[in-house]
Amino acid sequence: MKRFLVYAFYSAEISFNVINNPDFCIFLKKACSAFKIFSWYILSNTILDSEYDSLKKDINDILEKEKYLCLTSDGWSDMNRTSVINYMIMILQPLFYKSISTYEEWHIAENISEGIKQIINEISEEKVVAIITDNAANMKAAWKILKNEYPCKVILKFIKM
Known about the structure:
Blueprint lengths: L1 H10 L10 H10 L8 H26 L3 E9 L5 E8 L3 E9 L6 H15 L4 E7 L2 H13 L4 E5 L3
Helix pairs in contact: 4-5
C-alpha cells in the first residue's frame, strides 16, 4: 500500500508537504485505517532514495542483458535557466538513463564529450555502437573529440525541425 501512495506522489508531482495536511491524513485513515502515515521527510528522503536504488537496479539489469545499444544526449535549459543534460539509452524501448543539472559552462565541447565518455564507461564501451546528439556547434565540436577517443563508434547528428 505504501508503495502505491509513494508512486502517486512522485508521478503526479504532488508536494511532499501534502502528507502533513490534516485533511489528507484523515482521508488516508478513512480509506485504509491500518495504513501508517509517515512524515514528509521519510517520503522525500528514505523512501525516495530506496525507490531510486530499486529503479537504478532494474535499469542496470536491463542494460546488462543488452548486447548493443545507442546513447542519445541532449542539453537544454529549464525555466530557471539551469542547464540540464539528459541521457537516453535506445534499445527496443527507450530508457531514460540520467539527467544532470549543470551550469552554463557545461555546454562547451570538452565538458559535453567528457559527460558522454562517462556514460559510455558506466554502461560499457563494447555495448555502445552509436551516439546521437543534435547538430549544435558545441555538439559538433564534441563529436570531433569523441571521434578521436572512439574512432570505431558511429556519431550521428540529429537535426531538430
